[in-house]
Structures are given as C-alpha cells and as structure tokens.
Amino acid sequence: MGMYIIGRPKDPYPDAVVEALKRAVSGVHGVAEAHIPQLFMAGKTPMPEQTLIIVPGAGHEEVRLMKDVMDAVHRELPEGPDVPAMLVRGDESMAKAVREAGCQIFQSETMQAAVRRWWQVWK
Predict the structure, then answer these.
(1) 96's torsion region: left (phi>0), alpha (psi -120 to 50) or beta?
(2) Burial class (CB in 10 A: 0-12, 13-18, 19+), 36
(3) Structural domain of 49
(4) Number of alpha carbons in the 13 Å side-chain half-sphere of residue 33
(5) How far apart are CA 41 and CA 36, in angstroms?
(6) How far is residue 16's CA from residue 32's CA, in Å, rounded to a whole number?
(7) Is 70 exceeded by the pLDDT of residue 114?
(8) Model pTM score
(9) Phi (first) and psi of residue 112, to 5 degrees
(10) Of 65, 114, 116, nearest in space to 89 by CA
(11) CATH code, 90
C-alpha cells in the first residue's frame, strides 16, 4: 500500500457533517466499522485530508459496499462536502493505524459483540 500517515484531523469536519456520515454508514448493511481520520498516502493524496474509512464485515462484496456507502453519503450530504472514502479490510495493518487514531464514528452490533469482554457476555 506504500507509505501512509494516519492521525486525528487538524481541522475536523463540523459536527453536523459527522452526524450525517454516522447516519449514512449505519444504514448500509455490511459496514463493520467507519472512521474519519486524517490520511496522507504518498503518491496518492496531494496533502493530508480527512477521509471516511470503511471496514467491511466478513463476506461482503467490497465494490458494491463502497457504492452503497457513497450513495448513502450523497443522500445525507447532497450539498457536500465532498468526502473522500476508502475501504480497509479489518485484518490489514492499516486498519490498526486507523483504529489507533481514535476517530471511529460507527461500529456494527456484530463488531461490538465480537470485541466484548468475556465477563460482558451475560449482560
């Protein structure tokens, strides 16, 4: 994937945009996680930009999932801003860096159950 830098955004999206992105991704079946960190990828992005990162659930067709996500984002934010987006599989090393940035806006119930501690199973 080349060199990349991921972190908290210097100038994050306004709260209204973040809430619209949450609504958009939460309505798309197959999204396991969504994050909005600042991302710079050498040779791919001219400068760091806040990016919607989608982690797919197991067994979901990635091209279709990203189309559904972007359609939902455009429905929620018809006037913009133009939100760059990319898919990162949960087992990729980049996913760890994305999670460590602390910019998660959505986690599916399936993912929440998977990360529950053993003592929380009976709650």
Answers:
(1) alpha
(2) buried
(3) 4-120
(4) 22
(5) 15
(6) 22
(7) no
(8) 0.86
(9) -60, -45
(10) 65
(11) 3.30.70
H or E segment to which residue 75 belongs = helix 62-76
Residues making up the chain, counted from first to last: 123
- Residue 69, token pair as written in the block: 């996500």
Residue 20: partners with Cβ closer than 8 Å, 6 or more residues away: 73, 76, 77
Q: What are phi and psi of 104, to 5 degrees?
A: -70, 135
Tokens standing for 86?
């990319």
Q: What are the phi and psi torsion angles at 50 (to 5°)?
A: -70, 130
Question: Which residues, in sequence order, are CB contacts of 45 under 8 Å at separation 6+?
Answer: 39, 84
Number of structural domains in the chain: 1
37/99 Cα distance (integer angstroms): 9
Q: What is the pLDDT of residues 26-51, one digit of tens each?
A: 999 999 999 999 999 888 888 899 99
Q: What angle do CA 6, 14, 109 make, to 5 degrees?
A: 65
